[in-house]
Amino acid sequence: MKSPWFEFDDEDEVCGAFPREVLRLVRERAERWPCPPGSTYVLFFPGGETEDAPASEPDLMRLVVDLSREGSIFQAIGAEVEGDTALCTALHICDLAPTDEHADIVAREAKGSAEELAECIADWIGEVLHRPTLQYDGRNG
Fold this sequence. Notes:
Shape: globular
Radius of gyration: 14 Å
Number of helices: 2
Number of strands: 6
Order of helices and strands: HEEEEEEH
Distance between the termini: 26 Å
Strand content: 15-25%
Helix content: 10-25%
Structural class: alpha+beta
């Protein structure tokens, strides 16, 4: 059964084995989050490819939890996985790039195995989502 969290088309998206494993493990843990799966999505930038730069680095995967989709607040949070490093942070709602414009959301960086990165990402996102000022449950309301 395909997970509803961070959906993407496996056949159309280019993504390495390590980011896919991190994604699989985060999906398993996302069931405990107080947001609906439809508020999550994943973006891939193969080999360091961005709008301005050609591929020259490891794949970058950006996991996004769009809080504005449920009308909670105009904000997104998420994590970037590049190589064996993850950066959990607030994301700018317009371009979904990491931002530090929300002083109450402190970024967390981790380096390690797929299991370690997935645990860090899922715990960080879960902790932010469970804060009273962000709490909502679109599945039950």
